Amino acid sequence: MARLLSVNxxxxxxxxxxxxxxxxxxxxxxxxxPRRVRRLNIxxxxxxxxxxxxxxxxxxxxxxxxxxxxxxxxxxRSNLVHGQFGENFTVEGLADTNVCIxxxxxxxxxxxxxxxxxxxxxxxxxxxxxxxxxxxxxxxxRPGFYFRVIEEGDVEAGDEITQVASGPESMSVFEIxxxxxxxxxxxxxxxxxxxxxxxxxxxxxSFAALLEQQRASRIAAGNAGLGPAAxxxxxxxxxxxxxxSHKIAESGNVTxxxxxxxxxxxxxxxxxxxxxxxxxxxxxxxxxxxxxxLSDAACYRISIKxxxxxxxxxxxxxxxxxxxxxxxxxxxxxxxxxxxxRPVVLLSAGIGVTPVLAMLHALAAEGTMRDVWWxxxxxxxxxxxxxxxxxxxxxxxxxxxxxxxxxxxxxxxRPGADFDSAGHLDQRLLxxxxxxxxxxxxxxxxAAFMSDLTASLAxxxxxxxxxxxxxxxxxxxxxxxxxxELRAQEKEAYKARVEKSWRREPSSMPRVTAELRRGLPxxxxxxxxxxxxxxxxxxxxDYRGFGDYFGGRGGGIGQGLAGAIGVKVAMPDRPVxxxxxxxxxxxxxxxxxxxxxxxxAIVFVVLANREYRILKHNVDVWRQNFEAGTxxxxxxxxxxxxxxxxxHLAEGMGVEGIRVEKADDIATAVANAVAANKPCLxxxxxxxxx
Length: 690
Fold this sequence. Notes:
With 690 residues, this protein is α/β, with parallel strands linked by helices. The chain has 4 domains: 2-178, PK beta-barrel domain-like (M1 Pyruvate Kinase, Domain 3, Beta Barrel); 239-329, Elongation Factor Tu (Ef-tu), domain 3 (Beta Barrel); 344-467, Rossmann fold (3-Layer(aba) Sandwich), CATH 3.40.50; 502-685, Thiamin diphosphate (ThDP)-binding fold, Pyr/PP domains (Rossmann fold), CATH 3.40.50. Helices cover 32% and strands 24% of the residues. The protein has a 7-stranded mixed barrel with strand order 1-7-6-10-9-8-12. A 6-stranded antiparallel beta barrel has the order 13-14-17-16-15-18. Mean pLDDT is 85; it is low at 218-222 and 227-231.
């Protein structure tokens, strides 16, 4: 009989590692007595990296006592304690080779379903003080696995674990893990894995990408299944021929097309909310290119509203036939459904329903336990597309709410049957419906509708605050207090890191950012392109006001110095300071001349460590995650030979410059630069990668 040996929880903390701060929840400690398991996680538990851990599909991590014994012997360590691997449940039994994706287990009064193996990251290496630990888990086939919570309940160390259902396809955690990480990747097994409903969306997408890679090329370059989960690359380049398999009149003015690849191979899975670019037309000389959201990502369905003067919509409605071939680009877009346990609020009007309808399909397909709110506006019943489809999907959900508004209902439209209220989705209506304040909101179309709802949601927040009961406010106060305590713990950890690195030479990141804050005025505007110093900047500066902070999206470099020009033009009365690494600054160094030419009083701070530090960190992570044993030096990531001299570069473009070697001189240098009220450059020597 399998048994729960230990329940382990822990809140995220900041850990100093390789010259930077890592926010992680991998430190777990055993707790005694019953603990409530909820859809997101266990009471008292939290995740630092919510992109890779936590959420509905990864609510509880399970690791086996037998694997502990294996690692004690392999690593020669006798000091391993329950929770050491970041697991919530330490169990007796439930080996990765025996447990299958989709299996369901009863523990205490809670019911769980197996969704995926654990994806180990470098944070476990930090916790174990074994940098190769992520690679070792893959090599030894001992990942552990995640539970989804089907029924919330209480668990306690000592509880028996009873299997109540078996997953379809009978693919074990060990087999699924090896299928992704280790060659070969047999096509038949990939197809089997994709037929498991319980498999998490991330792993489903990875296997679909592997399958598509095999279809596209006999010689696979790398492992397509290991692409970044948060922003997956397009599944194919350019356009691919698809055949119109179905053409459906959804309403008086909306037509849907279901598209299938002409080669008969399954298309890569799309994320709910994404769009595709479609190239169509009666002839090659009359090609029309348009982008359409997928109204059902599972079957590549697009839905198009007929517009009086829309060439593409008229051709689709009147000219395109079943069996015709169109060219389709791979799904794209970041407006996608995120994994979480919070309520989901889907708001749309008119044809804007398409991406949120795809999200509703995804929620229904996975049998979500989240609260789902469906709020939609249409003109009348004739133009209310997908009414029956949405009702059917909602009816299959455990927790759902729906409200449909008609702005101009026809006489035949029945209140309470065809629609719920006349008018628009506005502030008054949202207040009356009592939509959840803490939900994930997805809004789409049209612009006026979006603007109205944004204002309505802001007003709704204030209305909830003013009308909340004493009990609600007390509960909210408790949550806020818990977060305040967590924040205080994080600040203490960061303070310890700062103190430890305070006297290092060249100066450490925390010391430099602390000195910058000491020397700059309170109304300063920061334009941040520091990348590896961004976290330290965020802790040193209090970005609360409008326009206090500008930064690039996604870690790109090259825009910082030039971006500061635009910020200063927009905010001429506030001091603007651009903070960039020396490598990043090289991309747009000509911005110094522009500042001098237009007499823009910008302070350009260049953090000079003579290297691309962020790229070195990325290489370290790659080596750990993909078991790259090489210790070769970092290639082409050092900025030396000849040495960069930003002071002379600045002077050559008409900007005064100064180089600061000592941390004690930083605050005075930047304060003087701001007071000069003209373009200035301050080059600060900082430590490189440790």
